[in-house]
Amino acid sequence: MEFPSKILENAVKSISTLPGIGKKTALRLALHLIYDQNGKAELLSQSLIDLKSKINFCSSCHTISDEYLCHICTSQSRNKKVICVVESVRDLLAIEDTGQFSGMYHVLGGVISPLDGIGPEELNIDSLISRIQLGYVEELIMALSPTIEGDTTIFYITRKLNQPDLRISTIARGVSFGGDLEYADEITLGRSILSRVPYAGND
Ligand SMILES: [Zn+2]
């Protein structure tokens, strides 16, 4: 594409680096912002700067939060005896959207994947173990993707915890997640949380 302006070209280039946005959409967005009279570009750039410079993570569950502890961790109405372990904030939000889970969460930040250079140290596993060692958690729900990496991560955490009294369950595998947890529809995902199955370990 021949751009009439280097500035426009740069904007299109950087917008199209975002996931799911091709060059055509990027051009449409850039032109929209050029002609907008309501200060959209200024608002957008400020919120993007805030997003990178001010965003915080909950010190307990590691989800995105503006406070030291997130609204789930500080809620009085959530069941603190159950922790749902997820890979990402997106997965947490997907499960929250189902409205079927009223316990707590722990965001790992990924799964163990030696090929990608992700070991247990790269993930929020130690802080999960510290939370469980406080003694009030009775069940861990492992809502990780049904892959070798997901299974390895569950196995690693279970071994590291070594707490026979702690119930560990995985979300039902009979349902199709379409690859990723975040793409599962709300009803399927909600149902799979309710019909979770006890983790059978390595046997
Ligand atoms: Zn939290």
Q: In words, what does this structure look like?
A:
This protein has 203 residues and is α/β, with parallel strands linked by helices. The chain contains seven helices and seven strands, in the order αααβββαβαβαβαβ. The chain has helices at residues 6-15, 23-35, 40-53, 89-98, 126-133, 148-161, 186-194, and strands spanning 56-57, 64-65, 79-86, 103-107, 139-142, 167-170, 197-198. The strands form two sheets. A five-stranded mixed β-sheet has the order 4-3-5-6-7. Strand 5, helix 6 (148-161) and strand 6 form a beta-alpha-beta unit. Residues 174-179 have low confidence and may be disordered.
Write the layout of secondary structure elements.
Elements: H1 6-15, H2 23-35, H3 40-53, E1 56-57, E2 64-65, E3 79-86, H4 89-98, E4 103-107, H5 126-133, E5 139-142, H6 148-161, E6 167-170, H7 186-194, E7 197-198
Parallel strand pairs: 3-4, 3-5, 5-6
Antiparallel strand pairs: 1-2, 6-7
Zinc ion is lined by residues 58, 60-61, 63, 69-70, 72-73.
Could you name the key traits of this structure?
single chain, two-stranded antiparallel ribbon, 203 residues, binds zinc ion
The residue ranges in which pLDDT falls below 50 over 5 or more consecutive positions are 174-179
SSE order: HHHEEEHEHEHEHE
Counting helices, strands and paired strands, the structural category is alpha/beta
**Alpha-carbon distance between the two ends:** 57 Å
Task: Give the beta-strand count.
Answer: 7
Shape label: elongated
Query: What's the total helix number?
Result: 7
